[in-house]
Design goal:
This protein is of the alpha/beta class. The chain has 2 domains: about 1-100 and about 225-295, D-Maltodextrin-Binding Protein, domain 2; about 100-220, Periplasmic binding protein-like II (D-Maltodextrin-Binding Protein, domain 2, 3-Layer(aba) Sandwich). The chain is about 40% helix and about 20% strand. It contains 11 helices and 10 strands. Strands 1, 2, 3, 4, 5, 6, 7, 8, 9 and 10 form a 10-stranded mixed sheet that branches. β1, α1 and β2 form a beta-alpha-beta unit. α3 (about 75-80) crosses α11 (about 275-295) and α6 (about 140-150) packs across α11. The longest helix is centred in the last third of the chain and has 22 residues, at about 275-295.
């Protein structure tokens, strides 16, 4: 079946900046596919509008399997935030889930708080004085923070950056104070080095890989955000090409080297066939819509 695909390099488009968690995960997968499918899978970063420029680019690409999208939750978030992307899930063919993970709430060490409860108390005593960084308007760190603000009724000023990597120098130095980043390598490296203080994970319960860090929901009932990475192709990509890609990705997700690398970055493999991934995405979109409506967020 795979004899005719791929016969030339495949572009894997990532809508967020190089060096961020999404980009790192995409490059891990692209390298594995390059080594096992006989052609290069080349990651291209196409940033802008919280990943939606990349999504649009893949939607409009030729449906031949040679332009793929590797995306985090910005695919489903974009479908809620941007009218022109409201039909994204119908215009993309889900290929495979890749990884599941939480966001991690961290604060600059100079902030005098050590728990989620202390952060809430501090924010209530100092309304509008805390700066909450994000990797961009409408990205999951932004929505994670807005959901937190909504449920706790606190006031933090949103400061968007272009990608998560750009946040860290200002967060470490205390120019901004709070960040809900993807549980990827940059944030965990900073936590382990003592440069940032972790307060909680965004999943409903503690994340097995970080048992000592509480779930935010232990302090804020109803708070839950779990994220995923996945691979997509343009709609009308031949089903046999999607089947080949899904099969290879799911083989990768039991490769001990890949599993170990994902665990280091705080994630677990997300193996599923395309139809199950499609159902997951529909539920994910509904969850983001609820948060966006709750918090009254509008794309800028």
């Amino acid at each position: 079946m795979g004899a005719y695909y791929p016969t030339r390099p495949v572009r894997v488009i990532v809508g967020l900046a190089a060096g961020g968690p999404t980009d790192v995960a995409a490059r891990i997968m692209a390298q594995w596919l390059s080594e096992h499918m006989g052609e290069q899978f080349v990651v291209e970063n196409r940033t802008g509008a919280a990943g939606s420029l990349a999504t649009e680019g893949v939607i409009n690409a030729s449906p031949d399997g040679y332009t793929l999208l590797f995306s985090g939750p910005n695919v489903t978030i974009g479908a809620c935030l941007y009218r022109r992307l409201s039909k994204t899930l119908e215009e993309l063919a889900p290929v495979s889930g890749v990884m599941r993970f939480p966001n991690l709430l961290v604060v600059t060490p100079s902030l005098p708080v050590k728990t989620v409860a202390e952060l809430i108390d501090y924010a209530k005593s100092n309304p509008g004085r805390l700066a909450m960084a994000s990797s961009g308007v409408g990205a999951s760190p932004h929505l994670s923070g807005e959901f937190f603000k909504f449920l706790t009724k606190i006031d933090m000023v949103h400061v968007p950056y272009r990608g998560s990597a750009a946040v860290y120098p200002d967060l470490i130095s205390g120019k901004v104070h709070v960040f809900f980043d993807n549980l990827g390598s940059p944030v965990m490296e900073m936590v382990r080095a003592g440069k940032l203080r972790p307060l909680g994970v965004t999943t409903a319960e503690r994340w097995a890989l970080l048992p000592d860090i509480p779930a935010i929901a232990e302090t804020v009932p109803g708070y839950e955000i779990e994220l995923s990475y996945g691979m997509f192709a343009p709609r009308n990509t031949p089903p046999e090409i999607i089947a080949v890609l899904n099969k290879e990705i799911n083989i990768a997700l039991v490769d001990p080297k890949i599993v170990t690398r994902f665990l280091q970055d705080g994630g677990v493999p997300m193996r599923m066939p395309p139809d199950e991934f499609a159902r997951f995405l529909a539920a994910d979109k509904a969850k983001w819509q609820k948060i966006i409506d709750f918090a009254g967020i509008q794309a800028e």
